[in-house]
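Justification of computing resources. Each target in the renewal requires a structure prediction run like the one illustrated here; the chain below, 428 residues long, is used simply to show the kind of job we budget for.
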Amino acid sequence: MACLQEGRTRTQSNTTLSDEIIQNAFHSYLKSSLTQAQAERLIDAQMLSSAKNDTLMIIGPSLCLFFSALRCTTDPPSIPLPRPKKARHQMPDCSSNAPIDLSFENCPPQFIAFLRVWASTVPTIQSLVPQMQHDLARILCNMPPISSNSRRIDIIRGVAEDIRAVAIEISQRRSFQDRYAEDLQAAIIAGSTFSIPLKPAFKPPPDYNEATSPASISNHRLSASSSRHHSRSRPQGPLLTPEANSSIAVIRETLYSAMLDVISPVPNETNPPFLRKLRSMLKRDPPRAYYTVVALAILHFARVGIIPESGVVIGVLGTLLTLEDCPQSLRPLMSSLIDIAKTVKLFEQEDDEKMACRLQEGGEVSYDLFRMNRVQRILESGIGARGPSPTGRTLALANEINMLALHMSGLDAFRERAGAVFAVLVGL
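Resulting structure tokens:
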């Protein structure tokens, strides 16, 4: 695996960098990372031009973070930023326009959690032999590792989950989504062997910032108002229409109903604090708030709406759905839901055993003792809220749920109704 090193003298700035500077630097590195990944045959132009939005949205930032770790030369780890091309992007405390690092001293608060998790992976990544570094890159691209050393593979899978978790949260940012097609096109052109380069089929998910506008809220006010007055056990979600009575509609409407469960102040006392946090998130970052609720709805769905042993989904109005009932194109999504439900059940069983042992020993029962609590906390508060997990299984499940939330949000069947559902959140 090639290691990109820079032998330049760098300047440290203690003045907080602007969001624009960070975004421009990230997308500059993202383009070069995608180009290098093509050169190393980790991805190709066909993949970059495919319509697999959710996959590409995570692979791209993951590779960018990985290559940045390889070329890091500082301790503690920092990220070298490219020189600004225009005067309006002049970096603070840098009159000579010398290169500067993104460090903990100048990182904007909204990116500190990303930087901290990325920095924690740098020593491990740089200590790997080239073959294992290449295997890590393959895992980040959803390819199987070449090495058969199971112990080392477990280590790099854990690192991959850390990188992937940061990449997922980056991919949820609207500023990233709006510029990613340009990054893909630049990488396709740089590595193209065709006389006429392919064009990326990528299109951003719905813009949930627009859903918070007064006009949008007014359009969906009646829907939001009626949806909030749902029953305690299972809120009344959008009902299936005769023409939409299909597998995807069953999953969609059941997920929407689960979303209403998630934002309900009942049935437990833990929701009010979360709802206060969600209202704050809606004001500063509407897309992130939407993805958070979708992810929590998937978790809720997996806990109460799927029978893991048989893989049967219990949909709205008691509709039953199995993998065999789904068309071929929908089976990967259905399989992901079932896999998540199986992992959730396993974690819950392990948590019950921990509880029994702790009570038998007379020890204190803490919130972090239970794996499912840690999963929920990551989904609610992001990668910065993660705790130590020796095997990385907790973060792996949270990542799987977040990736499915991103995938579902990009499907046309979900896009069609996303505005109405988002209006419910705005009406909190």
